Structure formats: C-alpha cells, structure tokens
Here is the input.
Amino acid sequence: MSDARRLIPSLERLLESDAFADILEAHPRGLVVQHLRTELDRVRRELSDGKGSVVEPGALPRDVEDPQLYAVGVEERLRVSATPSLRSVINGTGVILHTNLGRAPLADSALDAMASVARGYANLEYDLEAGSRGSRYDHCTDLLRELTGAGGALVSNNGAAALVLALRTMAFGRAVLVSRGELVEIGGGFRIPEILESAGATLSEVGSTNRTRLEDYRAGAAKSDPALILKVHRSNFRITGFTEEASLGELVGLGAELGVPVVYDLGSGLLADPERLGLPREPGPAESLAVGADIVAFSGDKLLGGPQAGILLGKAEWVDQMRKNPWCRAVRVDKTALAGLEATLQLYRDPETALREIPVLAMLSASLEVLRERAETMAASISGAGVAAEVIEVTSVVGGGTYPGVELESCGVRVGSREEGADPLAARLRGACVPLVGRVEDGAFWIDLRTVLPWQDTVVVDLLSRHTGP
Here is the structure.
C-alpha cells in the first residue's frame, strides 16, 4: 500500500506540460496557478477519506497522473470565475417588480442616458452656463416639481435613505408619531422602528394594529411633544375586517393644529393613472401633496419605472434643510441614476408615451389578448422543436411591496413532462447562458408572458428548445 496522493504531479510539472500551454497563453500565469492549486486540493481530497489514510493505487482513476485531468478542471474554473456574478436574467415569474430580480427594467431612453454620462465626463456638479460649480440635485428638480406640483424636490440613492434623511432633518432627537398599524417591515429585515432609531428619532406609537383614530394621534402628541407625524403606506400587506385609520387629510389638519409637519412615506409613488393600468386608485405623490403633506417620500425603481433612487417632494423650506444636512452627502445619488431618472421623468410629460415606453407601465397595461397571442406563438414554436408546450391562463402580481392582494389576469406557457419533473428543468434554465427564472407548479415549468419583455420571446423559445428534453 502507498499514499495515493504521491501520484499527483507537482504544480510546476503540470504548468510545464503541453496540456497547459494554451491556457497559459490565454490567461495570466498567477490566475492559472491560483486555480490549479485549488484543483490539486480537490483531487487530493477525493483521493483521501479526509483523514490522510492510504488508498490502494489500483482504486485510483487511470488519469490521475495525466496533466489533461487538471487542465480540464482549471479551464472550467477559469470559465466560471470569468462569468459575471450580476447578470441579466429573463423574468418569467409574473412578478412585475420582482425585488430579487432588480425591480423595474428601464426604458430605452433611460438606458441611453445612463450610458451617455457613464462613458465619459458629465456636468454632474457643473453649471455649464455660468462656468462654475453646480449641484447634482438641480438635474431632476424642475421635472419633479412640474409633474407633481411640489415646492421642492430632492433625490437620494434609495427609498429608505430618503426617509432617514427626512427624519434626521426634521425630527433628530425628538419623537415621531406613528400608528401601530403602520410599523411595517420594508424588506431585508428593516422595520420602521429601526429606521427611526437610525435616524436619531424616537418612536411614539399610537392606536392599535387594526384601528387608529385621529384622537389617538392627538393623545400621543399630548404625551410626547412630537417633531412630526409620520404616515406609512401599507404597501406590502393589507389589514381587513374591523379596521379604521386616520386619513392623510385628517393628519394634515392635526399637524396644522399642533404646529408639526406631516411626512408621508408612499413607498412606490405611482405617477401614472392607476385606472389605465388596471389598478385600484390610490393616492400618488401629486395627490398627497395637494392634500397638504409637508414631505412625501417614495422609490424611483418601483411603479415609477426608473433606476434605484429615493425621491423627496414637498415644501421648499424642508427640502432646503435636507440638502444642507451632512447626511445628504452620505446618501447622495450618482450620475448614472440621475441620468436614468431624468430620462424616465421626461417620458411622463406625455402619459401615452409613458405607458408605451416605460416597461413597468407597459407590462401593467398589456392586454390579455396580446399576451395570449404571444403565448400561442411561443407554444407553437416550442412544440415545433419537439418539446411539449401548452398555453395556460395565469395571474400576475405587481410585487415590489406594492398593491398587495391585487392580481392581474395573464397568459403563459407550460412546458416539461411530469415524468421528469419540473425542478431539474428549472435548475437547467437558471444555469443557462441567459438565465430564465419561471414558476414550478403542478409538476411543470410555467412562464408568465406579462413579465417577459416582447423582444425576449425568441430567446425563451431557444432556451426551452435546447434545455427541455422531448
């Protein structure tokens, strides 16, 4: 008996072999060495029971001394390491604002604008007319004011940051009145009480989970001397049954009575007409400001359909104070997001253009007839490649913590056989060169066409034809 690991060639011998000549020519030597060491460790582990015991040589793979064995392993490691971790995927889940898949896909004009400023320099903080220093916060302000009627506007790098900035500016070291029914978790384990704490404010809970009246806010104010009243839109869940809540208008009236501002965290901030999208009517930024909210906060990458950003709208005096807060620099938005947001907002100047060009709005407003026609074409193409496929009726959801419980009728395609099961197919499609993420239901793989961009239909057909057995 002998230690089988002694048969493994040395690192230098492998590097000098013909099997590694092309690899070293195509890749940096240091990178090849790094992956070769990892591959050698793998082989050593496979030749041992984990305790360093000996193995009969006759039990070893015949090619354990062959450099080609290690070359194949190194090439695969090089390929995997060169594949970007963050990749474009096709969303066939039917969840329009899929947070795990990056929320809103962007309009072509937004992509062009972002690429334009990213390729070189930009007047991010430079006044071209005056030839002197400018402010990055000027670029979207006029458009936001025009579209919403806000007195002032400020853009940060995400929705939670916008809320923290508002709270740190308006309520640092003081109490904030919040209904117990609005102490939501916004995702990632972050909850409104923790956000208030990180902003240096003190939470003053009022009312109960299901019923909070105006009198509860008034009683809470008498006990805590609040700096502001915070209303949080319950965008990712619903409370039904024995419920009651104070309206935004009532809170604005109370705020005026107490001499404290009202901040409304809207969450998604839809600028389009919800009825045109088949959605229930909810107050948007313009409506909330018209009612009298001092500050409204919402995200740019939800129903607005733009890049990730946190948008603050409201009274100019409060917005000016936020701009001067040192925290504003910590959460400032970058040039590409600003360019994409500005291009997206430009589309809203013409509601019809916005519905057509902004992917999220186009998905929401897509008719069932158009979706069925796409599904029939796709199913026929897949079946023509020898793969079982059929058109099915499904339901889409908005996602992204918006419009909970609202379902949209949609059409999709079901593929795969119950004999194989859908899980292996779903795994293969996730591992494809262009990953396809769908739904596994009733022993089959489902694709909802509402969240598949029309130009991706042919890509989906190709993926399913190649990765699904006949």
Notes: The first helix runs from residue 11 to 16. The chain has three domains: 4-82, 90-98+361-467, 108-351. Confidence is low (pLDDT under 50) at residues 51-60. The domain at 90-98+361-467 is CATH 3.90.1150.180 (Aspartate Aminotransferase, domain 1).
